[in-house]
Amino acid sequence: MTDLAKELAAVVGPAHVLTDPAVAMSYLVDWTGRWRGTCRLVVRPGSTEQVTAVIAACAAAGAPIVPQGGNTGLVGGGVPVDLPEAVLLSLRRLTDLGPVDRNGTVVAGAGSTLASIQQHAHAAGWDLGLDFASRDSATVGGAVATNAGGVRVLRYGDARRQVLGVEAVLASGALVSHVDGPMKESAGYDLGSLLAGSEGTLGVLTRVRVRLVPQLPARAVALLAVDGVAEAQAVLDSVQSEVDGLTAAELFLRDGLSLVLAATGAAPPFSRGWPAYLLLECGGRVDPLEALASVLADQAEVRDAAVASDATGRAALWRYREAHTESISAAGVPVKLDVGLPAAGLADAEYAIRAAVDEVAPGARVIIFGHLAEANLHVNVLDAPSDRVDAVSDAVLRTVAERGGSVSAEHGIGRAKPRWLGLTRSAADIAAMRRIKSALDPDGLLNPGVLFDR
Ligand SMILES: Cc1cc2nc3c(=O)[nH]c(=O)nc-3n(C[C@H](O)[C@H](O)[C@H](O)COP(=O)(O)OP(=O)(O)OC[C@H]3O[C@@H](n4cnc5c(N)ncnc54)[C@H](O)[C@@H]3O)c2cc1C
């Protein structure tokens, strides 16, 4: 054991310092299999005090620190790529959940999974406004660090909007903590907002105070077949103006559904295939199915429809959408891009993205799905030759930027996209971000290579 390993073992216990690369392997490869790293050790503290001591020891040894939660991130931000001297700091043991207070807030350890917070909230009659398919592994620390979105953004906003306060350890070893007190506050800088979306580059989150939302006991889901993205948008526009309680509006296309059917063995939702599918969910205190169905009956763009308000039926319809990420991975290691676009012109943007990929990687498959209400498309490119991966990213992200879009809507920049940050953020923005980074982490110890090129 090196001196640092011994020092950390004294803090967290020898069982929680992993120095054998074979044992550490699951921490060193990302969910997609695209990002692989090495590190000098993995450390798994079990309390805020231990995180503080670990960071102080790493700082004294000059060891870069890569924070990691559930390792479900899709931009390589939690994997120490080209950082053999790094310490991988796993926050997964920080799973304490405090009581739900009468205002519907709860303080969660950063390593709590979204599913565990949801269950905890349900038991108290509340719910978490944040949800997505990796809920059983993704941690609240990781979700806040990436400013994750997911399927409820339409109703409740992204991860940043759920944060009422954070506790975090800075690179200096200082603990900033503001997870108690009143619901409302305007006393000084909001460190929670600053750390949301910072991807482990400004501080290590140890606890998060999240606001919960009222539980909606009745839900209805509709899966609609349509002729394309523009038609899906037209239906969504009508539903948004005529139906109360819309919580989700998700888009997927014919080729994505084919991969899902192949990977899951599920039966197709309709007797024939259609170019595009829109999944809508409404929630309320009374069953919203009738109201939703009556608005949908008037939509000329809807070619076929399946609806459900019972839990099993809803889950079966959601599965067609939620199984996309795993089904795409079952077909290969994709180039994963997550972009935000202006809603106007979304259908044109879809064609332009496909054309841009075809130009640099002819024959590659482009699987697009996403969160329609925010015009957030997940662009997955399969079968691109390994020497064309950067060209594919460049072509897609420039196409998006030319249309006024963003190079990241909810997955973050990570290690995948620092060179394209300037397509979305101005030089002045990036200079201000760099000044904040050097003020809080002057030696660049926290997650080097993420957000900014090394
Ligand atoms: C099947 C699937 C579906 C998904 N769907 C969505 C979706 O709909 N919407 C969406 O936004 N994302 C989605 N994701 C991406 C991913 O799940 C989220 O970004 C998630 O929030 C990451 O959480 P994590 O705990 O796994 O973080 P990690 O992957 O472990 O880390 C992500 C980043 O956060 C940093 N980090 C982690 N924990 C901390 C901490 N405690 N303090 C400081 N920094 C930290 C890491 O350094 C890294 O930069 C999906 C992923 C999968 C695999």
In short:
The chain is α+β, with helices and mostly antiparallel strands.
What report would you give on this structure?
With 454 residues, the chain is α+β, with helices and mostly antiparallel strands. It is 34% helix and 20% strand. A seven-stranded antiparallel sheet has the order 13-10-12-11-15-16-14, sandwiched between helices. Strands 5, 6, 7, 8 and 9 form a five-stranded antiparallel sheet that branches. Helix 1 (3-12) packs antiparallel against helix 3, helix 9 crosses helix 12 and helix 13 (346-360) packs antiparallel against helix 14 (389-402). It is globular and about 70 Å long. The mean pLDDT is 97. The site of flavin-adenine dinucleotide has 38 residues, from strand 3, helix 5, strand 9 and helix 12.
Number of contiguous helices:
15
Number of strands: 16
Helix content: 25-40%
Principal-axis shape: globular
Oligomer: single chain
- Radius of gyration from the CA trace? 22 Å
The major sheet is characterized as:
7 strands, antiparallel
Strand content: 15-25%
Mean pLDDT, rounded to whole units?
97
Strand order of the largest sheet: 13-10-12-11-15-16-14
Class computed from helices, strands and strand pairing: alpha+beta
Tell me the distance between the termini. 29 Å
Highlighted features:
454 residues; 16 strands; 34% helix; globular; binds flavin-adenine dinucleotide
Show the helix and strand layout.
Layout: H1 3-12, E1 17-18, H2 21-28, E2 41-43, H3 48-61, E3 65-68, E4 87-90, E5 105-109, H4 114-123, E6 126-128, H5 140-145, H6 153-156, E7 163-169, E8 175-177, H7 191-195, E9 204-214, E10 218-226, H8 229-242, E11 246-253, H9 254-264, E12 276-284, H10 289-297, E13 304-308, H11 311-322, H12 324-330, E14 335-340, H13 346-360, E15 365-371, E16 376-382, H14 389-402, H15 427-440
Parallel strand pairs: 2-4, 3-4
Antiparallel strand pairs: 1-2, 5-9, 6-9, 7-8, 7-9, 10-12, 10-13, 11-12, 11-15, 14-16, 15-16
Helix pairs in contact: 1-3, 9-12, 13-14
The structure holds flavin-adenine dinucleotide.
Flavin-adenine dinucleotide (FAD) is lined by residues 31, 66-74, 77-78, 91, 110, 132-134, 138-139, 141-143, 145-146, 148-150, 199-200, 204-205, 325-326, 410-411, 414, 447, 450.
